[in-house]
């Protein structure tokens, strides 16, 4: 679809508006853009004529953006950032491909990172840039081609690839362990519990899966913001942590942690690679997805 010219202002005019909004004065905007104050003012006037609306209030030769113009400038800033990121990607790998990937810190480091050397051997022409993200974000406002996502495949306007179902194990330091293992869930309920912010109902759901409906006061304990910190708390004997099995494999093998149950319990959530519909034909992303399918867990693993 061809966009009408009146909806596509010049980059120079948009840069002037964005700089004025961010820096607060025409003189500062002019200095950053290597223009005169008069040139900045003319760019803004040209933009106002094209849009058919007033963007600035002029008071004693000072320019102040209207509240509506500030919102518009913020949206323009996001668009300019995306243009800059895309330009940088083309310049850094014009004949190959670059994939900007948002990752979950723990899953990205412990599950994806050990597998990436194989991808690099098969696809040395693809560069993967990674940025950690714990909180949800919008593909439209951040320059990511794809993301590692935990939950359910219900992200509107996207496609997804299942990577791994999450399976949880209660673990603790050996000094907290009772005489025998596995430990009855009722006994685990009496032990100090460690919680993580990204899974606030994990313990409650786990006990329900074992046929126990604990009272809220029985689920007290300390809260941690990341798996790396809750792992350290468990290693130092502060309590029992309910951990994804892939995160504690090494600590269990070395005896630094002990599993209080013999089998991991599968949860309702899973890890996915998610990408916006608009990126589905990106060559670098297609190569990455094709390779990841060979690393991913089956859609309906048996036994569950």
Question: Could you characterize the architecture of this molecule?
Answer:
This protein is an alpha/beta fold. About 40% of the residues lie in helices and about 25% in strands. The chain has 3 domains: about 5-90, Winged helix-like DNA-binding domain superfamily/Winged helix DNA-binding domain (Arc Repressor Mutant, subunit A, Orthogonal Bundle); about 95-165 and about 270-295, D-Maltodextrin-Binding Protein, domain 2; about 165-265, D-Maltodextrin-Binding Protein, domain 2, CATH 3.40.190.10. The chain contains 11 helices and 11 strands. The strands form 2 sheets. Strands 3, 4, 5, 6, 7, 8, 9, 10 and 11 form a 9-stranded mixed beta sheet that branches. A hairpin with a 2-residue loop joins strand 1 (about 55-60) and strand 2. Helix 1 (about 10-25) packs across helix 4 (about 65-90). The model is unreliable at about 300-304 (pLDDT under 50).
**Which outline best applies?**
elongated
Head-to-tail CA distance between termini: 47 Å
Helix and strand pattern: HHHEEHEHHEEEHEHEHEHEEH
Q: By helix and strand content, what is the structural category?
A: alpha/beta
Largest sheet: 9 strands, mixed
CATH 4th-level superfamily of the largest domain: Periplasmic binding protein-like II
- Please give the count of helices: 11
CATH class of the largest domain, named Alpha Beta
The averaged pLDDT comes out at: 86
Helix percent reads 25-40%
Instruction: Assign the CATH architecture of the largest domain.
Output: 3-Layer(aba) Sandwich
The CATH topology name of the largest domain reads: D-Maltodextrin-Binding Protein, domain 2
Strand content: 15-25%
Uncertain runs are: 300-304
Calculate Rg over CA atoms: 26 Å
When the domains are counted, the total is 3
Number of strands: 11
């Amino acid at each position: 679809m061809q966009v009408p010219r009146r909806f596509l202002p010049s980059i120079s005019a948009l840069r002037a508006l964005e700089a004025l909004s961010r820096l607060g004065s025409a003189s500062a905007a002019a200095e950053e853009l290597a223009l005169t104050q008069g040139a900045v003012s003319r760019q803004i006037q040209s933009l106002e004529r094209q849009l058919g609306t007033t963007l600035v209030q002029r008071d004693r030769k000072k320019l102040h953006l209207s509240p509506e113009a500030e919102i518009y400038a913020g949206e323009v800033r996001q668009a300019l950032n995306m243009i800059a990121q895309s330009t940088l990607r083309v310049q850094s790998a014009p004949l190959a491909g670059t994939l900007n990937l948002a990752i979950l810190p723990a899953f990205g480091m412990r599950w994806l990172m050990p597998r990436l050397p194989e991808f690099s051997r098969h696809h040395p022409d693809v560069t993967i840039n990674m940025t950690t993200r714990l909180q949800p974000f919008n593909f439209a406002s951040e320059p990511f081609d794809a993301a590692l996502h935990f939950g359910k495949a219900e992200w509107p306007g996207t496609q997804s690839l299942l990577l791994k179902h999450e399976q949880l194990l209660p673990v603790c330091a050996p000094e907290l362990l009772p005489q025998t293992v596995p430990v009855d869930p009722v006994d685990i309920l009496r032990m100090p519990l460690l919680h993580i912010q990204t899974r606030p109902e994990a313990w409650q759901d786990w006990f329900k899966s074992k046929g126990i409906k604990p009272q809220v006061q029985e689920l007290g304990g300390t809260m941690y913001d990341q798996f790396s910190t809750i792992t350290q708390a468990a290693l130092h004997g502060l309590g029992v942590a309910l951990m994804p099995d892939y995160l504690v494999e090494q600590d269990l093998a070395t005896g630094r942690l002990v599993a209080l149950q013999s089998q991991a319990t599968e949860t309702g959530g899973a890890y996915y690679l998610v990408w916006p519909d608009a990126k589905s034909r990106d060559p670098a992303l297609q190569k990455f997805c094709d390779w990841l399918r060979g690393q991913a867990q089956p859609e309906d693993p048996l036994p569950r």
